[in-house]
Design goal:
12 strands; four-stranded antiparallel β-sheet; about 220 residues; 7 helices
């Protein structure tokens, strides 16, 4: 069985819950927005009037530090929510959201629509708050890793998290097989390392027979679990 992630949203499909296309009162006037690779959904300091759900593709969330360096806080995939700080009164974006696929489809929901749903449905409101709380904790943990851990430790922690979210246990070989959506460029961005540095670290782990990489599959030795 697939390992259960601590960030899993209790079988709630955010797209079915939030997308206006699924709501009769909004569906006629609703359209999906499409973005190409490197196109911004929004930038830092832009007005925060909507929240967004990814219907296809992947989106990178991050910000630029005082030196102008890009800091990636998370990479989101199909079905995930972003821009949710606007629900709590954020008037301008504190981060950017950028498509990292050639065909990224986004469903946008106005803050007014979400707030109406939250006021009229207590269970829905609770699930949204819980989801956001989990997401904040995940982001905080990621930033702590970037600030306080070396590149190798960041990679090992990332692999453990990846195992929790995507890993499937192989009893025959006493290992976990991870089928994940990330490219090596995605992983390098998340870990704030260069591609060559990431390759060196991965090759060392593979040489030590702790992992085995095959495109978007990583086999992890039980020693790392």
């Amino acid at each position: 069985m697939r390992a259960k992630s601590v960030w899993f949203f209790e079988d709630v499909n955010l797209y079915n819950l939030l997308c206006p296309h699924k709501l009769k009162s909004y569906s006629k006037e609703h359209a999906f927005n499409y973005y190409k690779k490197k196109e911004f959904i929004y930038s830092e300091n832009h007005d925060a009037k909507d929240i967004f759900i990814i219907t296809e593709g992947k989106v990178k969330i991050g910000y630029f530090n005082a030196n102008g360096d890009e800091i990636v806080t998370t990479i989101l995939k199909r079905g995930e929510l972003f821009g949710e700080s606007a629900i709590f009164g954020e008037s301008h974006r504190k981060e950017f959201a950028q498509s990292i696929d050639n065909k990224t489809s986004i469903c946008s929901v106005t803050i007014n629509q979400v707030q109406k749903l939250m006021k009229s449905n207590q269970a829905f409101s609770f699930k949204i708050y819980k989801f956001i709380g989990f997401k904040i904790k995940k982001t905080e943990r990621h930033l702590k890793l970037l600030l306080h851990k070396d590149a190798k430790t960041r990679l090992l922690e990332f692999l453990k998290d990846l195992n929790v979210e995507y890993g499937m246990y192989c009893k025959k070989n006493s290992c976990n097989i991870i089928s994940h959506p990330y490219t090596q460029k995605d992983i390098a961005s998340l870990l704030a390392v260069s591609r060559p540095t990431l390759n060196i670290l991965l090759n060392k782990l593979e040489k030590d027979k702790l992992i085995k990489i095959n495109r978007n599959k990583i086999t992890i030795n039980k020693v790392l679990m």
